[in-house]
Amino acid sequence: MHVDRGILWVVKGDLKQAQADFETAIQIDRNSPGGYYGRGLLRARAGDQDGAIASFNQAIKLYPRYADAYTARSLAWAAKGDLKRAKADRKKALTLGGN
What we know:
The protein is an all-alpha fold. It has six helices and no strands. It has one domain: Alpha Horseshoe (Serine Threonine Protein Phosphatase 5, Tetratricopeptide repeat).
């Protein structure tokens, strides 16, 4: 519920509310890959690539077939200039059926 609402807040442009919902999702269920993924997207958007990668890492740890998390993490790696890791994550996302 909180992850879905967080996504709606992102669409509406209220990133503060989105962040609150993603954090609540994580607090309620530490095994919620969607909460970590959403938080990672917001961190990446804010320019915190290290924080984004940490969140995507947790999402992937909880759900190793999370293609979107691999794709998002690849973009964070690329933003940091680590093209080798970016390429590896992109390749993994594609093998999992991601876009």
